Backbone:
């Protein structure tokens, strides 16, 4: 019996070369500074157009600049403001720009010729945030006058006025064509329905709400108050699902990466924390030389853009690798000059 015995070979799982966190950290380390531009004042807002070539709007002082997504140079500059501009954003096709301001006026510009097309003077205080409503001809705006307003661009009329916040409205986001989300200094996040004109869900935080981010699927929402990032289940009437506290100072901005699988938060502690949306763990961290007021990532995951409190706009781009194509040669055939192929390192 002993002669017929064969030792069982136990298959070992392949050894992992690196942990997930290590690979994530290496991925974000590939972003190197490609642009450092000093502005006239603090960069308070960034918005990346979702369509190629992914132009992005930069709000700083009394100017709004639209940068080309491919060359990272200024394509258009808007200077027709009598006071500080706030919360500029681009329409999905990149042809229109809307912005608020300290003077309380919501303006719509044609991006190509920089002409103002609409001006709405309904707010009674500075307008901090503006957004185009997808798949409609509407836009929304939040103001220090504690209101959210819905405007129609073709008729230049106000469609809805939402009054329920007890303090300044700092951030707004459209959930769909009729439902909108607001964050306020009254420590609440509220969801509004334009069909009823009322607040449908109220979510209470521990501090003033500085930023909002709707997560993929439109069923979850992330908000930032103080040093905390909170996750809410919209389909469960705003039930809190998780709370993360990894910053040492106030969180000022939230955004998604290009793959929409990670959440980024920037704060006054000069750090950008990168969270996995699956595990809600910090998988990487980026350091900056000054407090952050705005952060954004292009949809192709090529560039990370940050607006700093010291008036510097920083763009970090992934490393590029140039590889020469080597053709197969026959006997006696001389090689021809080949063009370099540009490849993006991804992981």
Residues:
């Amino acid at each position: 019996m002993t002669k017929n015995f064969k030792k069982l070979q136990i298959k070992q799982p392949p050894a992992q070369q690196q942990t997930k966190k290590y690979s994530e950290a290496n991925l974000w380390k590939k972003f190197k500074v490609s642009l450092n531009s000093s502005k006239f004042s603090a960069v308070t807002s960034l918005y990346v157009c979702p369509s190629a070539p992914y132009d992005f709007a930069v709000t700083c002082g009394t100017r709004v600049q639209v940068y080309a997504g491919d060359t990272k140079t200024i394509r258009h500059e808007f200077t027709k403001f009598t006071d500080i501009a706030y919360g500029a954003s681009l329409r999905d096709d990149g042809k229109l720009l809307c912005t608020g301001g300290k003077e309380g006026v919501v303006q719509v510009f044609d991006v190509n010729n920089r002409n103002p097309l609409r001006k709405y003077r309904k707010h009674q205080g500075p307008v901090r945030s503006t957004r185009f409503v997808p798949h409609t001809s509407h836009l929304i705006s939040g103001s220090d006058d504690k209101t959210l307003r819905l405007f129609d661009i073709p008729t230049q009329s106000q469609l809805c006025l939402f009054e329920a916040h007890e303090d300044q409205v700092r951030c707004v986001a459209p959930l769909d064509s009729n439902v909108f989300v607001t964050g306020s200094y009254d420590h609440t996040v509220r969801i509004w329905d334009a069909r009823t004109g009322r607040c449908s869900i109220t979510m209470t935080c521990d501090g003033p709400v500085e930023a909002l981010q709707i997560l993929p699927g439109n069923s979850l929402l992330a908000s930032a108050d103080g040093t905390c990032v909170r996750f809410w289940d919209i389909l469960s009437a705003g039930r809190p699902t998780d709370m993360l506290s990894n910053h040492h100072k106030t969180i000022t901005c939230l955004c998604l990466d290009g793959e929409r699988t990670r959440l980024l938060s920037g704060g006054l502690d000069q750090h950008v924390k990168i969270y996995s949306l699956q595990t809600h763990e910090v998988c990487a961290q980026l350091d900056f030389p000054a407090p952050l007021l705005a952060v954004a990532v292009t949809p192709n995951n090529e560039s990370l853009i940050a607006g700093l409190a010291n008036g510097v706009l920083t763009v970090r781009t992934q490393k590029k690798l140039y590889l020469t194509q080597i053709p197969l040669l026959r006997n006696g055939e001389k090689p021809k000059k080949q063009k370099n192929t540009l490849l993006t390192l991804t992981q």
